Amino acid sequence: MVVNRLRLTIFSIITTQLMPFKEALECMVGEYKVDGQCCPTCHPGYRVHETCSLMTGTTCVPCDPGTYTAHQSGLKDCLQCKVCDPAFGLVTRRECSPISNTVCGCSPGYFCTNMKDDDCEMCVAHRVCTPGQYVKSRGTERNNTICEKCQAGTFSPNGTLGQCLPWTNCTAQGLFEEKPGTDTMDTLCSMQGNPPLGFIGTPIIIIIIIIIVTFVITVISIIMIFVRRKKNRERG
User: Fold this and answer.
1) CB-CB contact of 144 with 130 (8 Å)
2) Residues 55 and 86 in one domain
3) Which intervals hold domain TNFR-Cys (predicted)?
4) Cβ distance 119 to 104 under 8 Å?
C-alpha cells in the first residue's frame, strides 16, 4: 500500500515537472502537435486516420469524393468541396479535386461582387441601360455595366447602343420638322408642313374620289358602246 502511494507521488511529481516542457513543445515543419507530441502531417489530398505513437508514424488515408485538403495538415476530416450555386449566378470554373477546392465564376450577364483570388462567392446581374442611355462600358465577369445619359441632340431608343445617335436634321434634307427629337426618339420629318387638323385627310380623300369617278365613267362608257353596237346590229 505504501509502495503504491509512493509510486503515485513520484509519477505526479514527474508529470508536474514535465508539464511546462509539454506546453512549450514546438513542432518542426511537416509536423503537427497532438496530445503533447509532434506527429508527421498528411500530404495534400489525405487526412489523419490514426495519430502517431512512440512506435508508429501518422496513418493517413485519401480524402473521400467531394472533400479535399489543399496543404499538408493534421486534419482528421477533409474539407467539404464548395458548390457553385446557380441561384447566385455562379457556374463551376474548375471542379473540386482531392487537393483543391472548387473554383466558381459568373454566368454570362453577371459580374462578381465578392472575389477571393480567382474564386467568386456571389454574382449579380449586369445593369441594364434604359432608353435615353447608352452603354459606356459593357459588363464583364468582374465589373458591372456603366450607363450614361444621351447628350442634347442625340437619342437612344432601347439603351443597348454603344453611343447615342444624332437627331435627323430635317432642314438639311429639304424636309419639314413635324415632331422634335427626344433622348429616346429621333426627330420626325415630313415632306410638307403640317396642314390644319381639319384638312389632314383631304388630299387622300380627293384622290380616292377621283379614282372612283374615273372607274364609274369608264364602266358606263363601255356599257354604252355595247348597247349602241347591239342596236346597230338589230337595225342592220
Assistant:
1) no
2) no
3) 62-104, 105-147
4) yes
